[in-house]
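Recap quiz, item 2
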Amino acid sequence: MSIQYHAERKCFYLDGKDVTYAFRLFEKHPEHLYYGKKIPHEDLNHLHITGALSTGWIAFGEEETCPRCHLQSELITYGRGDYREPCVQVQNAAGDRLSEPLYVGHEILPEKPRMKGLPSMAGGETLVVHLRDDLTGFEVDLYYTVYDDCDVIARRAVYRNAGNDTKFLRRAYSFTLPLRGNNYDILSLHGAWVRERRMETIPMHHGVVSIDSKKHSSSDELNPFMGVLTRGSDEHHGNVYGVSLVYSSSYVLKAEGTMNDQTILTGGVNDFDFTWKLEPGEEFETPEVVIAFSSEGLGGMSRAFHDAYRNHLINPRFVRKSRPIVINNWEGTYFDFNFEKLKAIIDGVEGTGIDTFVLDDGWFGENRVDEKTGLGDWHIVNQNKLPGGLKPLADYIHSKGMKFGLWFEPENVGPDSDLNRTHPDFAIRVEGRKPGLGRWTMSLDLTRKDVRDYLVETVNRVIRENDIDYVKWDYNRCVTDPYSLGLPADRQAEFAYRYALGVYDLFERIINANPDVIFEGCAGGGSRFDPAVLHYFPQIWTSDNSDAEERTLIQYGTSIVYPLSSMSCHVSDIPHHNTNRTPSMATRAAIAHLGATGYELDASKFTDEIRAEVAGYNAEYRACEDLILNGDLYRLDNPMESPFFTYLIVSKDKNEAVLVAYRGLDRLGNPSHEYLLRGLDPNKNYRVEELDKTMSGAVLMNAGIYLRFAHYDFTFKKFHIKAVD
Ligand code: GLA
């Protein structure tokens, strides 16, 4: 039993692998006591915090201070003397916006029930705490799930109208988590196209630190993640929390520094442009938030997320399985291809170990020669480029023993397309306004079932009729003009959440109909890299920027939350199309092979020599693939802080490891660099092939190794480390 209730203390104790979460009932309010390293189930009532006095001092009875105004509450509500960020605000029929849900009972379930329309982590022992406001009939269920193989707690709330009148949720966040003290720094992952998930740390202060998206997609601007780092902690040391939201539409995450020097975390569905009508008997389900804790710094927090997402979030059919090594034609041809050109690319990779050909944008529609036409016309294969349709290409690929991947962008539609001409009402728009175009397309109204039905039928038919083995699912714009013809006026502010439900329904119905097809997520590069998408797509295109140097930054930032197996990373041509840099093929492969991998270039130009070189890199990738998919990641150098980027990946049994040490710009003053290894068994002996030496784990971790890099930019060294008897 990982969840226990101590009736006398009225205290709940929830244990993960090495974490404990504890809260108790204080006058029927759930009062947070502790989240951190695993501790025994002792009396924690001394952790009750009383508030500072201020003009906000409110009493409801004979008390001298308001015990609940500063309570470390598991659910902050508004209007009764608590002025901190509320988790929920509901408007009742009378127009008042008050609620005071109090404990009425709880259940401990051996397995978390599946959520209705939202993706979430699977399984896990779950505590459900039932709260109710007797005056209004507003009910709240707080869900807590723990896992014995990872250091996270999954939380969410369900809001129910058990009253007799219509209510409106004006805010419906997923959780409140009060943390001790305010000695924290806040880490976010911000970015833009070709510059995804850069790390930014700011000091926690009094007031609210907020990150959000209003884009109806999680976006590359700010990933739905917030790190809360105890000041002084670093990559390897110190207490670190991470909050990761399993949701892809408009969201918000907040950390509030309060007057009594505490830190309250909260967030979920963005309450900007949000109101939800809750009729009697109806429920509103909030997205799940996964909160990791590690006493081993940021690296420990990342490993907690990697384990949690590999073990419980990502499709078990694919998560640990060997991945395709793809050749994608996008950067090789862009829109300018025909059957012969593609055939030459396919022939070009023969004998290299590349096993999947992915045909990117441009194969569909009557005249798709650029981004401006035909998007959405999946039912038409471009006759100028592929006069015989897709089947001859599929057959050719399969005859070579390779798999066939195909690009789609199902969620959007071009104005100049058959789809838009036949169904002009499918695109999101407000009557009388010209809809905003993003990359010359409009967003489809996925809140509508008829629109989704059309897409499911059309995309599934293409996959089925052409023996597609792999799908690259792109999404190249964010929603504007949020409005649905399918919703009444008083439900239009439900659009962003309903859009998310529509997206997930679409994913689910297409992916479930094609269980053997591997789906790769993509969004104009890596602009929808979030846990909800990962639930459906075991790998996501990390960025349109695959310059090796830039990729060290992007992949490092992405690894803060997401496992290496989730990152799709390709070797591109040189000079690189974004940066003009010219790192060697060996360097490009070393960086691109730290994830799900492939090539994105015109392989028809491969010489026999290059083919042999590529075959070598791919064999090397396959030899390390199990580590990459399943190992523990130790980040030894942060390329955002130095020219070095170093990953050490250690197998779970500590018998094997690979060290990839990259040095970007050649700063001649400092050509050698120390590496202290981590995560090995100090008592085991390890053979380091490239050093032709056997050393104990203790020596490798404490004395370490020194490396001297070649005197040119963008170089790397790789070490294979194996336990020996
Ligand atoms: C997006 C993707 C690219 C490519 C193009 C095609 O930008 O990120 O990889 O598929 O679309 O239009």
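Residues 330, 360-361, 407, 474, 476, 522, 524-525, 541, 544 surround alpha-D-galactopyranose (CB under 6 Å).
The two ends are 38 Å apart (CA to CA).
End of item.
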